[in-house]
Design brief:
Radius of gyration of chain C: 25 Å
Strand content of chain B: under 5%
CATH architecture of the largest domain in chain C: 3-Layer(aba) Sandwich
Number of domains of chain C: 2
Shape of chain B: flat
Number of helices of chain C: 11
Distance between the termini of chain C: 32 Å
Shape of chain C: elongated
Distance between the termini of chain B: 29 Å
Strand order of the largest sheet of chain C: 6-7-8-3-9-10
CATH topology of the largest domain in chain C: Rossmann fold
Number of domains of chain B: 1
Order of helices and strands of chain C: EEEHEEHEHHHEHEHEEHEHEEHEH
Radius of gyration of chain B: 21 Å
Chains: A alpha+beta, B mainly alpha, C alpha/beta
Oligomer: heterotrimer
Number of helices of chain B: 13
């Protein structure tokens, strides 16, 4: 009898404890399975749909402009983008040049309906990729490790990540790159445009006249699908036959006679010219006599005077040499605002050459209460040369009548073309937009389409330097690293000893 | 649940543990903030990301005693013999640790205010990293809670949670090593698709990496599925913790 | 009222509790006795819901501890062998926490705590840290903890262990006063304690119930015969033989003989001990031996306990 009941109990025993055991082990297994399954589903199916780009500048999404361009490509068009690296560990891309590139390229793929593919192939792992992309080895791609190769049909273009950003020139001069703007989309869409459509025209920028760099000007031109070329001043200087536009960007020396002759000849055959000169410490004694002789042929003259703005409404931060200029009638649709930024400007005026058929129009105007003065070698205004209470032109446009006429924009300031300005204010600045419009105007007789990709801002985490002084940062260190932790530890000691003796 | 939460949260401040954890967090965040501030560039997102690296130390400090101490003192009997459900006990403990992290985070909020006062930026990316910070805190705390449930020794619990969090933080690297190892083993025995198998293993392991999943938040790209992943892993460990506690009732060993 | 039915708890292959059944009535003090390792604590843990039984059921005021654990647990206040005290809290903080745990509403809490504190006499240590209290006070706080939430049943596992005699007396007095309005299950290895407090005793040995009854019935059940110790002045010889002749006396053994007194242990088989005692008195008087003392030697709980546990162990 007692043995029997024991047996029964043993059986019951197993039922209850096994029920608990099966239940809990089973519940855990089922939970793990559910979690895995839902996560995989979420990731693969809804992942994209439930991912939102909230970034301030939408830096990780391509703009409608790019989407429209991609949509305009034929459906069977295949653009292959190959990053010559293993895919950058997304964990580590923050604060590197790939931060904005990798996500954006993914967005290209997402929006291209198969026209664009992005791969990351490390040439050290798979060396064949280089000859596959560039069979003739005309680009020597092996030196472009870490760059992106954009391939369309048999043509390739290389995009260096460093070219995808705008840098602040003042920081570069101090020895480090301070990223100012995010040109990734600008760079890649334009690269694809150029690969698929070709350059619209060719511009030559004259170099070798102690000028500043042309990095940003080149970007602007490329954005307009104009091929950028440099034309160094030399003994046998000549304007190439295929030249569509000559640019003189901030020469601090006058042009040599040889150049003058060549350019005179160039404008006589319907040449287009963009000239920008300012009046700075580097050139205030330069009178640009030969340049003016050239410009006089187009009925324009750049005066060797420095303009100062006396109308407080025009001055920026109350500074006479740093002001706004008004966009003259006829050019107001070139930029979205009609007051543009201007610094250390020379006066540009109508040369009033008798019999000249060029029509010279003011483009940018000072207030009616500006003054000008010649500057002596020491940088002081020459009393006798001061002219006051007048309106000056800071830029002019001159054009001949005709079907494909010679024309020119002449700027008395470098605020539209210099690296210094564009690096400080970015490529979406109104001045830069204005410059683009000017170039479009000069090229208007060409079959000129081009794209208008906006440059994106990068997050600017810098502090107001007036507030983040050394004293302030010492205070930050003392308060956050010393006082607060020590106070907390002291509190811990107090609480501990107090409670210990309760 | 509120009873457990209240007691555990207050007990952080009745003993030096809470103060020390907050002091440590204050010092670390203060150091990061100061080094950014002295360069005149403050990216709160970077600060929060860097602070995430310290979960591996902070979470074990906070969670090590949560359940193991109860076992040691014998106070865990209260959870079984009073009309409070074990799951609520687990959740109350988790919330207490989570609230302590929220208190720690006041430091960062002060840093944000200082940054904004000094003309700095506090953007979407930083908000994204903060969101991820708290979701990750939830996940790691429930891991730590689990480690605390399986032992009655605080030190053992701290070591176990330290290892679990460390492994999670190094998951991508493990993935790479595992992938490479598998590839080399397979290719040495002449398996044709060695590279793709290795890469497959690598990507499977990396799929579990919560840091990889949430990295885009700092760029302002918010992904719901990544947060869902963090929450579900956290809930899994919570449930495991609950099961471990429950096991004590019916275990036959 | 607690109904315990066929409780079994296994640890691996070993059975700690093997089929225990008993009932605790309302407002009754039930003593729970057994040698170490007999399964006392395990049984109590099962009753309170800390452990789940391998089989069998526990019903607390009609609520099954496994099926309606929250309702059942509300009825029970449990003081485990090691009181579940947070040494880093003050008594006040701790009792308030217990109130939170047991869901005592805010408006009732103040009065209830006042009552409990007065009852267990801990008002003078109310704001002190539990870790700094003496063992006796810790035990009182443990009892206070069990009383929070007004449970109808108190389960006290070794409540006086490790206390000094004054403390033991105080705690016993406390338990006695609690017994007026609660059912109490008290386990102890101090038998006199159970003897003093308990209405009924459950003796378990080796995971099984060895005996369950009131104390007096237990003693009777054990022997079925009474014993007396007779101390008198006079010679031992012959008197023992003469006593044996008294009707109902089954044995008389000389225990002590010295110059003054002799002690004889008398075993009485008859139920009518009063008659036997009268007979002895008259016989001794007739023999001229003055009786110094005639003491009943009813078995103590210790004897009952030992004989039951050892007897069962043999069986």
């Amino acid at each position: 009898m007692s043995i029997n009941t024991n047996n029964n109990k043993t059986k019951k025993t197993y039922t209850r404890s096994d029920r608990f055991k099966f239940y809990s082990v089973g519940a855990v297994i089922i939970l793990i399975a559910i979690i895995l399954l839902t996560n995989v589903l979420f990731d693969k199916i809804l992942g994209r749909a439930l991912t939102f780009d909230f970034s301030d500048s939408l830096g990780n999404s391509i703009s409608q402009e790019s989407i429209d361009f991609i949509d305009s490509l034929p459906a069977d068009c295949k653009i292959r983008i190959v990053g010559l690296m293993s895919r950058p560990n997304a964990d580590k891309i923050y604060d590197t040049e790939y931060q904005y590139i990798v996500p954006l390229l993914d967005d290209y793929v997402k929006n291209s309906s198969g026209r664009i593919s992005v791969e990351y192939i490390d040439p050290t792992v798979q060396p064949t990729i280089l000859s596959e992309l560039d069979p003739s080895n005309s680009y020597s791609l092996s030196s472009y490790s870490g760059c992106f190769v954009v391939k369309y049909n048999d043509q390739i273009l290389v995009v260096d990540p460093y070219d995808c950003y705008g840098y602040d020139e003042t920081y570069i001069s101090q020895g480090y790159y301070y990223v100012f703007s995010n040109n990734v989309e600008y760079k890649f869409t334009n690269t694809m445009y150029i690969l698929t459509q070709g350059y619209s025209c060719k511009a030559y920028v004259i170099t070798g006249l102690s000028e500043d760099g042309n990095i940003y000007l080149a970007k602007v031109l490329e954005g307009l699908t104009i091929e950028y070329n440099e034309l160094p001043v030399s003994e046998n200087f000549d304007v190439p036959e295929d030249c569509d536009l000559i640019i003189l960007n901030g020469p601090n020396q006058d042009i040599p006679e040889k150049v003058y002759v060549a350019l005179s000849e160039y404008i006589s055959r319907n040449g287009k010219l963009l000239v920008a000169v300012d009046c700075s410490m580097l050139n205030f004694s330069e009178k640009y006599e030969r340049l003016n002789r050239l410009l006089n042929q187009m009925n324009v003259n750049i005066d060797p005077v420095l303009i100062s703005e006396n109308d407080p409404g025009y001055q920026l931060s109350g500074y006479q040499l740093d002001s706004v200029v008004k966009v003259a009638n006829g050019f107001t649709d070139y930029a979205d605002i009609t007051l543009l930024h201007n610094t250390f400007a020379r006066s540009v005026r109508n040369a009033d050459v008798p019999g000249n058929e060029y029509l010279a129009l003011p483009v940018l105007l000072t207030s009616e209460n500006a003054s000008s003065a010649e500057i002596d070698v020491n940088g002081n205004a020459i009393e006798s040369s001061i002219v006051e209470g007048r309106q000056f032109n800071v830029a002019m446009y001159t054009v001949l009548e005709g079907e494909d006429p010679s024309k020119a924009f002449v700027f008395g300031t470098l605020n539209f073309t210099s690296d210094e300005y564009m690096s400080a204010y970015g490529m979406n600045d109104s001045n830069v937009k204005f410059l683009r419009s000017c170039i479009r105007e000069l090229m208007s007789t060409k079959q000129f389409t081009g794209l208008n990709i906006e440059v994106k801002n990068v997050d600017d985490f810098s502090l107001d330097t007036e507030k983040s002084t050394i004293a302030a940062s010492t205070a930050v260190m003392v308060v956050f690293m010393i006082i607060i932790p020590i106070l907390l530890v002291a509190l811990a000691v107090v609480v501990y000893t107090k409670r210990k003796n309760l | 649940m509120t009873a457990i939460f209240k007691r555990e949260f207050l007990s952080f401040f009745r003993s030096p543990v809470g103060y020390v954890a907050i002091a440590l967090f204050s010092f670390l965040s203060g150091f990061i903030f100061y080094s950014q501030f002295s360069n005149h560039i403050v990216n709160i997102g970077s600060e929060v990301i860097s602070l995430r690296e310290f979960f591996v130390i902070l979470v074990p400090i906070v969670t090590m005693g949560l359940l193991s101490e109860d076992k040691k003192r014998g106070t865990d009997i209260l959870y079984y013999t009073t009309p409070v459900s074990l799951f609520n006990v687990v959740i109350g403990k988790l919330l207490a640790a989570f609230a302590l992290f929220a208190v720690m985070f006041i430091n960062v909020i002060i840093h944000i205010i200082v940054t904004l006062c000094c003309g700095g930026m506090f953007g979407v990316g930083a908000i994204g990293t903060i969101i991820v910070f708290f979701f990750m805190a939830f996940m790691f705390i429930s891991m730590g809670l689990f480690a605390s449930a399986i032992t009655d020794n605080q030190i053992v619990s701290a070591i176990v949670s330290f290892i679990m969090i460390l492994v999670t933080q190094l998951l991508s690297r493990f993935g790479e090593y595992a992938g490479t190892a598998v590839t080399s083993v397979l290719s040495s025995i002449k398996v044709g698709s060695a590279v793709s198998i290795g890469n497959g293993i690598n990507s499977i392991i990396r799929w579990f990496d919560p840091f990889l999943k949430t990295q885009d938040f700092r760029l302002g790209i918010f992904s719901v599925s990544a947060l869902f992943f963090l929450v579900s892993i956290g809930l899994l460990f919570l449930y495991l913790t609950f099961r471990v506690l429950d096991k004590k009732r019916w275990s036959q060993s | 009222m607690i109904e315990i039915n066929n409780l079994v708890k296994r640890y691996g292959d070993k059975k700690a509790v093997r089929g225990i059944s008993f009932t605790v009535n309302d407002d009754e003090v039930l003593g729970f006795l057994g040698p170490n390792g007999a399964g006392k604590t395990t049984t109590m843990n099962i009753i309170t819901g800390y452990l789940s039984s391998t089989s069998g059921s526990v019903k607390v005021n009609g609520h099954d501890i496994l099926e309606e654990p929250e309702l059942a647990k509300k009825e029970i206040g449990y003081l485990p062998e090691n009181p579940p005290l947070y040494t880093d809290m003050t008594v006040k903080e701790y009792l308030n926490y217990i109130c939170d745990l047991k869901g005592v509403s805010k408006d009732k809490r103040k009065r209830q705590l006042e009552n409990i504190v007065a009852m267990v006499k801990i008002s003078d240590v109310y704001d002190r840290l539990i870790g700094n209290l003496s063992k006796g006070y810790k035990q009182r706080v443990g009892i206070a903890q069990a009383l929070v939430g007004n449970p109808s049943i108190l389960i006290l596992d070794e409540p006086t262990v490790g206390l000094d005699p004054t403390q033991i007396i105080e705690i016993r007095r406390l338990i006695k006063s609690l017994a007026k309005s609660h059912s109490v299950i008290i386990s102890s290895h101090i038998l006199s304690e159970i003897q003093e407090i308990a209405d009924r005793v459950v003796i378990i040995n080796n995971g099984k119930i060895a005996a369950i009854d009131t104390l007096t019935d237990l003693s009777k059940r054990l022997s079925g015969q009474s014993k007396f110790l007779l101390t008198f002045a006079g010679p031992a010889k012959d008197i023992a033989t003469k006593i044996r002749t008294i009707n109902g006396v089954s044995a008389a053994v000389v225990r002590v003989v010295d110059s003054k007194f002799t002690q004889i242990e008398i075993t009485v088989g008859s139920a009518d001990t009063t008659r036997v005692r009268t007979d002895i008195f008259f016989m001794m008087a007739s023999l001229g031996c003055p009786i110094i003392e005639l003491r009943s030697l009813d078995p103590t709980l210790e004897e009952v306990f030992l004989s039951i546990t050892s007897g069962k162990a043999k069986g």
